[in-house]
Design brief:
The protein has 113 residues and is mostly helical. It has one domain. The chain is built from two helices and no strands. Helix 1 packs antiparallel against helix 2. It is rod-shaped. It starts with a helix and ends with a helix.
């Protein structure tokens, strides 16, 4: 085997190895990107929608009931109407949203581990 043939084979092997390493890095990067997209689609997107809804609902509730300070302030306790509104909103709105957020996190995070 002469020098030219050996050099050609060496260059070809080197080119193959470089191509393999680059393709491996691209595949890993694509896998990471697919994982992030899956997390955004299945967990973070729905969770953001629920959190935004909960915050907006809380703002509406506090605008209507006791907007001037703490809801359960010791110096000025809530009236019967305020306490009834608290229980009603908590049962009908806040806790269902909290449970949906909890369920989403538990199911999606446990699916990963």
């Amino acid at each position: 085997m002469n020098f030219q043939t050996a050099a050609t084979i060496t260059v070809a092997l080197f080119g193959f190895m470089v191509t393999y390493v680059i393709n491996l890095r691209l595949a890993r990067r694509k896998d990471r990107l697919d994982r992030v997209n899956e997390q955004l689609r299945d967990l973070y997107g729905p969770l953001l929608a629920l959190v935004t809804t909960a915050n907006s609902t809380w703002t509406v509730f506090r605008t209507k009931y006791r907007p001037e300070g703490g809801f359960f302030d010791e110096t000025k306790p809530p009236t019967g109407v305020d306490a009834l509104a608290w229980r009603t909103w908590m049962k009908a709105t806040f806790m269902p949203l909290n449970r949906r957020m909890r369920d989403l996190v538990v199911t999606k995070v446990s699916a990963v581990t």
